[in-house]
Amino acid sequence: MDPDYFRAEMCWGTLGTVRPHSNFHPDRDVMELHTALEGKDCKTLLRILTNRNNEQRQILAKTFEEVTKKDLVAAVKKASSGDLETLLLELLMPPLQFEAHRLQMAMAGVGTDEESLLETLCTRTGPELREISNVYKQMYKKDLEKELRGETSGDFAKLIVALLNKSDVAGRVHQDVETLVATLRGKKCDAAPWIDTLTSRDPDHLRKVLDEVEFQTNLVLDEALEKRFSGDLRLGLRVLVQCIQNPDLYLASRLNVMKGPQTQRVMLSHCEEDLLCIRAAFLKLTGASLYTTLQKHFKGDHLTALLNICRSED
Question: Which of 38, 83, 210, 268 is most deeply buried (CB count within 10 A of its CB)?
Answer without folding.
Answer: 268
